[in-house]
């Protein structure tokens, strides 16, 4: 009950649309998915694999959120909306993490053993992002919307793009999971394209000036 209370409080703190804990408990599919997962994970750890999988599939049917019974999930985990989320068997999620709909914490093939990502504490994974592979996303990291993350992300960093690139937040330590702004992040690819475009404009002006001098 303590963990459930913590989870409801975390939803209430991070969702401006949440009006009461009772509403969250009764109507939020993310909360239902977490409750079902706690049951499925207990059964999984006691070698009742079929029953564990049955509970997880039942949860998927009702919530649209698929969490493998083997996944390890920390405290105060918040799933916003949740439809289309997939969390693999060897995935690990730390405390105070926030995940949006359409997120995949998946593997990259048929490898045995650890094959899904580990999220540290206070990690935010935004809408549609894919985190694929057995690496760690460091504490306080942010994964931008629709990013495809294929390698380790350091703590307090932002991953943007396809494939994702890291933008460090120099000298700033922020609880990123509590910030729900998914779009106002720096895209390093866009910066490079802007630099190339500026360079091309400069060269075009130089060529025009040389052409005018030649014609004179």
From TrEMBL:
Gene3D superfamilies: Hexapeptide repeat proteins, serine acetyltransferase, domain 1. It is an enzyme of class 2 (transferase). Its EC number is 2.3.1.30. It comes from the Bacteria. The keyword Acyltransferase applies. Pathway: Amino-acid biosynthesis; L-cysteine biosynthesis; L-cysteine from L-serine: step 1/2. Its main location: cytoplasm. InterPro entries: Hexapep, LbH_SAT, Ser_AcTrfase_N_sf, Ser_O-AcTrfase, Serine_acetyltransferase, Trimer_LpxA-like_sf. GO terms for biological process: cysteine biosynthetic process from serine. NCBIfam families: cysE, EPS_EpsC. PANTHER family: SERINE ACETYLTRANSFERASE (PTHR42811). This is Serine acetyltransferase. It comes from Candidatus Flavonifractor merdigallinarum. The gene is cysE.
